[in-house]
Amino acid sequence: MLYLDRLPGPVLVTDCNGRIKHCNCDFKRLAGVGTAEGMDQFFPPASRIFLQTHAWPLLLRNGEFSELYLQLQSEGGQAIPVMTNARISEVDGTPEVIWLFFVAKDRQRFEAELLKAREQAQESAAQLAKANLALQSAYAQLANYAVEIQSEAEQLAQLSHTDPLTALSNRRALSVHVEQWLGSVSDLACGSLLLIDIDHFKQINDRFGHAEGDRVLVDMAQRLLASVRSGDSVVRYGGEEFAIWLPNADLDEASDIAERVHDQIKALEVANESITVSIGIASLKPCAEYLEHLLAAADKALYTAKAQGRNRSIRHE
Ligand SMILES: Nc1nc2c(ncn2[C@@H]2O[C@H](COP(=O)(O)OP(=O)(O)OP(=O)(O)O)[C@@H](O)[C@H]2O)c(=O)[nH]1
């Protein structure tokens, strides 16, 4: 059939049972001449099944199909991917099927490349998800470290404001308390300070030992705490010196508290001997004075209390 040989591509003509009637030169070059009369011989097993179960039913129902993906088989047994169009037409009253094949090696390569690209994309996505998880866990760890550092900083700040022996606040904390008060009250407010020094403390150490001296300091701290209201600050100011900051207390109120302190420590004894303290009292008005002046005034009053025979409170007027 000369006109079939002139067509640009492999063409096969069969009857409606797949018996070969003609094939052109391009088809023979591609799949060989064949040895049997059925077209099945040109297809590998998988494509034969596909032809029987899908292509033929489609063709017989619709009279044609297009772009079905099949595989032909070369004479050497090699699979050749082809796109296939087929149509039933009548020639002299007899139906015959024309099969057109388009070699689709490129499509197969594109599909393989596409598949590979998809696998790579999936792998990248998995790696990204893994990296994301690692990042999240690193963030969580970082947040934990931040919390730990914050808590350590708070502990350090606490330690730097605490006297290790008595667990009272120290003199650094006193300035913080007074400064805070100065920043928060009106000019008319009045705060007072008691500067308390244990009388003849050196003798306690000398006679009963340093450990006993320490016990007295700890006991003293407890009694001072018991003498004040919440909101007042008891601090260990130095060796055997304590201070009580009384925000919003004037000189009279502070003197009352000093008396309470003397009462509280009456029961504090070493070897049946009572311990006494001397107290200097001074008051502060936020508009005029600051902590150094307050401490200087209380210290002056304390010195006077000692000079006047100890075991007493003296007010700085
Ligand atoms: N056990 C003990 N003693 C301390 C501590 N800090 C300071 N001291 C002692 O406290 C004593 C203070 O002595 P002084 O300054 O002479 O005062 P004092 O003996 O109380 O005399 P007056 O204040 O004049 O009544 C010294 O012997 C210090 O060694 C401490 O933490 N523990």
Q: How would you describe this protein?
A:
The radius of gyration is 53 Å and the shape is rod-shaped. The termini are far apart. The mean pLDDT is 92. The chain is 49% helix and 23% strand. The protein folds into three domains: 4-103, Beta-Lactamase (2-Layer Sandwich), CATH 3.30.450.20; 107-159; 171-315, Alpha-Beta Plaits, CATH 3.30.70.270. The chain has helices spanning 2-5, 25-31, 45-62, 105-160, 171-184, 201-208, 210-227, 251-264, 291-307; strands at 11-14, 20-23, 64-73, 79-91, 94-103, 191-198, 233-236, 241-246, 269-270, 273-274, 277-284, 313-315. The chain has 317 residues and is an alpha+beta fold. The strands form three sheets. A five-stranded antiparallel beta sheet has the order 2-1-5-4-3, with helices on both faces. Strands 7-8-6-11-12 form a five-stranded mixed beta sheet, with helices on both faces. Helix 6 (201-208) crosses helix 7 (210-227) and helix 7 crosses helix 8 (251-264). The site of guanosine-5'-triphosphate has 15 residues, from strand 6, helix 6 and helix 7. Guanosine-5'-triphosphate binds next to strand 6, helix 6 and helix 7. Residues 107-134 form a coiled coil. This is diguanylate cyclase. It is found in: Cell inner membrane. It catalyses: 2 GTP = 3',3'-c-di-GMP + 2 diphosphate. Its EC number is 2.7.7.65.
Molecular shape? rod-shaped
| The CATH C-level class name of the largest domain | Alpha Beta
Series of H and E elements: HEEHHEEEHHEHHEEHEEEHE
Structural class: alpha+beta
Strand order of the largest sheet: 2-1-5-4-3
Q: State the distance separating the first and last CA atoms.
A: 135 Å
Biggest sheet character = 5 strands, antiparallel
